[in-house]
Amino acid sequence: MVKNKKSIILLVLMVVLLVLISSRMSPQQVRRPNAPTVTDDPIPETMPPVETEAPAEATPEPTPYITEILPNVSRNDWNLKLVNNTYVLAYTFAPDVVAVRDDQYFDARAADKLEEMLSAAEAAGYTVCIRAAYRPFSTQAYLFNGRASQIQWGTTMTLLEAEAEARKIVAYPGTSEHQLGLCADIMDNKDTTMKAEEVENLPLLKWLREHCAQYGFVLRYPKDKQEITGWYEPWHFRYVGEDAAKYMTDKGICLEELIAMF
Ligand SMILES: [Zn+2]
């Protein structure tokens, strides 16, 4: 009986041991607590994203060209507004202008800069005279039509032919930068005819070429850009703001070329 009892106890112990072993071997217990299952998040937080480990050369650096060469300006800045045969001003365009010297008018936002530049030229010993600055559409139309009539007078030309000739001398209404109010034709007297080659080397114009950028101005129609701008006028200075003026002067580019970079 005692032997039987011992056998039963041994049997029970073996059964318990077997149950214990089999329960430790069950799949739920074998799996590590953090091991992913099908229902887990497909990218566990503990797994580093593969993309961030891309090789250094695959990380695109900002293109040095863009950051290096473009000044901190936008083509939509009021002072960079482009007016030419392609970018034509509406006849209703009317900037806010104020009176400046020589009975002329200039954009109110830049008139101080113009005066500052001209005063500096005077301080450097030059006589300064604004021959033309802001021109409303009607004045430009009057000038253009007058020149076309003059060309046509006494010839067999049609008006269209005369206007085509006039366009080589006077900007067609809407295409003149003078309508913007941001440019001035500057000379050292009120009277002499303005012939580009003859006045190119006037000491005043040379001084202005060298100093205008620090006041935010550029020589808008230099001879070497005539193919782009359509004009050669060594007296015509345009306000573009200091950043753009310095950049354009440093790089030797005209406004059309600057705008084309944006
Ligand atoms: Zn001009």
Describe the structure.
The protein has 262 residues and is α+β, with helices and mostly antiparallel strands. The protein is 39% helix and 11% strand. It folds into three domains: 55 residues, no CATH class; 152 residues, Muramoyl-pentapeptide Carboxypeptidase, domain 2 (2-Layer Sandwich); 40 residues, no CATH class. The strands form two sheets. It has a four-stranded antiparallel β-sheet. Bound molecules: zinc ion. Zinc ion binds next to strand 4 and strand 6.
Topology:
Layout: H1 2-24, H2 27-30, H3 64-69, E1 97-100, E2 104-107, H4 111-123, E3 129-132, H5 137-152, H6 159-166, E4 183-187, H7 196-199, H8 203-211, E5 217-221, H9 226-229, E6 233-239, H10 242-251, H11 255-260
Antiparallel strand pairs: 1-2, 3-4, 4-6, 5-6
Helix pairs in contact: 5-6
The structure holds zinc ion.
Number of helices: 11
> How many E strands?
6
CATH secondary-structure class of the largest domain: Alpha Beta
Mean pLDDT: 84
How many domains, as an integer? Answer: 3
Give the termini distance in whole angstroms. Answer: 105 Å
The description of the largest β-sheet is: 4 strands, antiparallel
Biggest sheet, spatial arrangement of strands: 3-4-6-5
